[in-house]
Amino acid sequence: MDYRRLGHSGLKVPVLCFGTGTFGGGNEFFKAWGASDVAEATRLLDICLEAGVNFFDTADVYSRGLSEEILGKAIGKRRHEVLISTKATFPMGDGPNELGSSRHHLLAACEASLRRLGTDYIDLYHMHGFDALTPVEETLQTLNTLVESGKVRYIACSNFSGWHLMKSLGVSEEYGWARYCSHQVYYSLIGRDYEWELMPLGIDQEVGATVWSPLGWGRLTGKIRRGQPLPETSRLHKTAEQGPPVPDEYLYKVMDAVDEIASETGKTVPQIALNWLLQRPTVSSVIIGARNEEQLRQNLAAVGWNLTPDQVARLDQASEVTPPYPYWHQRQFRERNPTPVQFSGSVVRPGE
Fold this sequence. Notes:
By secondary structure, this protein is of the alpha/beta class. It has 13 helices and 10 strands. It has an 8-stranded parallel barrel with strand order 3-4-5-6-7-8-9-10, surrounded by 6 helices. A two-stranded antiparallel sheet has the order 1-2. Helix 3 packs across helix 4 (103-117) and helix 9 runs antiparallel to helix 12 (309-319). The longest helix is centred in the C-terminal third of the chain and has 18 residues, at 248-265. It is globular and about 50 Å long.
């Protein structure tokens, strides 16, 4: 297993992180992802640790805390061997202060996560989304207090816009507070919006990316093909409307290129999609999920080899879309304003 530095921090993380949204299945939405109990979760963690994956991601909102509880029990006495990432901000109750990134909510949310996880510190604590109603200074001062108390080791954000992240970094710098070292983002072979603004920001400010839904919300499993119905076990039956929209013909075009490379490499569609991400600038770790042991072992096999530059270029071309303004306009001045992917061969990725 390879390890990379997490953004502008001294923390090394494996290039694959195991996401535990499949733990618990506390409601219909999360049941569509998976419903691992403590026994199955423990076995999946065993497999991860055997492969060198010691980084586990969860959130308080995943099955209303059940994912955190199961993860904590599955870790057990191995706390010193692992890195735990969790999140706050989304609603955890019906009260007016049971959501957001206010001091009131974050202090309570952090304590609740610590109890559920059965630990006295969180390695990486994310703001799950941007709270525009709470001053950025209030959020970051609270997070800095948690870091200074030892309850949180590093802070991160998720699903921020470029200005959300840049403003937050500026406030942290102004006051000398802990800064976001990573950004958990949606990024996949069929969802490349991250490259337009957030990736250049990550390069410039040394913010590492941890990638969620790297298989395009379940579309890059290898089971979806032109002219075929969705497989019976696909979570898209219940969650497609909550995820990123992907036009059918665009998906089929990308899948044609992936299938061609799969035949050349002998690798599976998910392995190709994951390996492509691991060669992108700023990517520190890719979060993989699994309903069972077989899926997990297949995803773990995405490392230890690399697509060739030609194969990467063909996947890039197949998945290319015209970006919105001003990014399409900036491409007309590439000699002075190159895109990150354009000069990725000379970009130093986090940890290298």
